[in-house]
Amino acid sequence: AIYGVEERAIVMELVEGPTLAGPMTVDDALPVARQIAEALEYAHEKGVIHRDLKPANIKVTPEGRVKVLDFGLAKALSSESATADPAASPTLTMRATQAGVIMGTAAYMSPEQARGAPTDKRADIWSFGVVLYEMLTGRQIFGGDTVSDSLAAVLKTDPDWSALPPATPTAIRRLLRRCLERDRKQRLPDIAVARLEIDEAIAAPAAPPPSVPPRASGRLRWWLAGVSLAALAGLAVAMVHFRETPAEPVVMRFQVPLPEKTQLTIGSRLAVSPDGRRLAFNALGSDGRFQIWVRPLDSLEARPLAGTEGAYCVFWSPDSRWIAFGVDGKLKKIEAGGGPPQTVSSAAMTLNGGAWNRDGDILLSSLGSGGGLLRVSPAGGAPAPVTTLDRSRLETAHGLPQFLPDNRHFLFFALSSVSEYNSVYVASLDGKETRRLLGTSAQAVYVPAGKPPSVKNDEGHLLFLREGTLLAQPFDSRSLMLTGEPSVIAEKVWSYRTYGFFSASSNGVLAYRPGTRPSYPHLTWFDREGKLLEDLGSGDYNDVTLARDGSRVAVSQSDSSGNRDIWLNLARGVFTRFTFDPAQDSAPVWSPDASRLVFASNRNGPDNLYQKETGGTRSEEPLLKSDLPKRPLDWSPDGQFLVYGVTDPATKSDLWILPLQGDRKPRPFLETPYIEGQAQFSPGPPGAPRWVAYSSDESGPYQIYVQPFGEGPSGSGGKFQVSTGAGGMQPRWRADGKELFYIANGTLDLMAVEVKTSPGFEAGIPRALFTTRIFGGGLPNAFRYAVAPDGKRFLINTETVGEENLSVPVTVVLNWNVGQKR
Hints:
The chain is built from 7 helices and 59 strands. The protein is mainly β.
């Protein structure tokens, strides 16, 4: 990484750890070699060749991450002359790149470099072979006492293949020979091929080939022939043994403890890599933040992936190289071994499930997108709808997709407001096929049966939950039909709503989190020091808002079927249901006089705005409809305007204003390439300067900004950043407009900022009141707390640490499918 460029210096990342050294065991060397190949592959894809690859330019960090360093001799690929200047003498130099000049380190350079000939990416492939040989043997192939000796060895000396460890797989021996072909036309053409060969060797290491003795002559040949004939009898007996059926694999169970001070909560996900080698999960830390951890199953420890703070919706790429996840409304990916996260889609989605096929297509389920699944193509662009809700079955959402082996069909779970309609379906990317498979309360996972000769590749099982019991039922992925009866795999498997905490690889590795259904967070009153004042009870709350006088609370809450509605907590302290439609109703906003509530509902497509009187029995009325999902955020103190958020694939998330008088024509308030949300009008009497506080990621992490609204005296105008440092989300005003609150990113501290709104805007220095355990962290699309009018009490949707939320180890089962009916 380059952190800065000065007049005479480049400020670069300090890479800790030793440089590469051998010998290494085959098991240790191959993963390192794979990462080296990945680095070269990335450089070559960018049109850059290294030209000085050697152990001294390769470091292994304490976390096991391989870094290829020192591209000081690298050059951009270009069309070079096919012939070099014969008069140019081979001399090691740091001068500018030109044909006929040797660049690199003698013992590791390619023959064409040694001759001063033009080079291409095949020079790096030669050097890669030299480095890999040295990793395995601990010796240089072309070392010499002088540079001339080394150059001569590069041009004439053949490697000593017998020096390779006996355990070296056949594929790796073949790979080394192809990398070290002196004739470039016969050399391995692309480093990606080397990576694939190493992947296969890691997945299924082959036995080394038997050594071939030198050709014998004379009497020795006759003696060897006699020995060979005598050995045939023993070989015949051995063949009888080898033809016996190998022993059946044994089911094995063990536990994987969670990292210290972490938990798997209702926001966590569990994912076994497709190759069955690693377990990934996003755990909640003691700081209230989720982070992705990766536990290799051959290791005793899990390690966190830097840059995944706040991650949710974790799933793997089909080659087990990448982990995809949602964070801050974006879809990102990160290499399982670590590295910088990369953005895949910035379409302002709140993800709750994803799947990735071998063609690069990604399926996503996103809250507020109309309920159906979305498809992200390998070329990028805006997500496109793939499925639509079946209103005849009162479906409210499609989620938790998984691709089948043909890369075209996939499974998904359909959630209905009537629990009897909850089902797993199979569908196709082209939308031509959709078939119900079975009724269940959570998602299903398809697992191939494996590839022994007696088993067809299209045979496998569906794993699914019923009443906390994990079942497996035979499934034919070609006919897309269940073909047998379910059998019990495990009991008391943890689940939350439609998600079961279990995952399986294609080679018989199953992981699940045992336990009962987790407890919901509690809606709790705290004072300014963080002291608990009152507990209003637990529930699946997602939005918290107070009437302006602080007398009533409105929340959105899911019932046992997963249907989300608006609920009110009145003076008697009991929550009562406010909406009853079989759809997802959320984001309640009080009118200034508390006589009405505006909320979002997907009852007729994407989330639209509806309103309902809080007194009497009048039904909900449509307030605003359009093709884009929207979410009400706040009602102006004078009752004339509503500010709401719009999810637009072209501009991510924007803020719009709906006038509630006159022509009632919506207009944009903030429409930018960034994510703006959580807008709140400043309090004040009619005619007072009005301001809007909101969160935005325009500078990277979410920050809290204040911007003037409307006509009239609004001070000096402009935009003001209120939060500092790592920023924050979920701004809330005190009723008198003299203080602004927000949740700090990372620490989840409740921050308070003294402000002035007249005649202009001024903000003091933010200070932390106390550290919260706000449920879900600082989400950018919902409010999980509210402020009493006097700013002395805070109602926070709080994570609890109950018996079922402790750090229960994950159970791993190897060969779980042994003995399963097919």
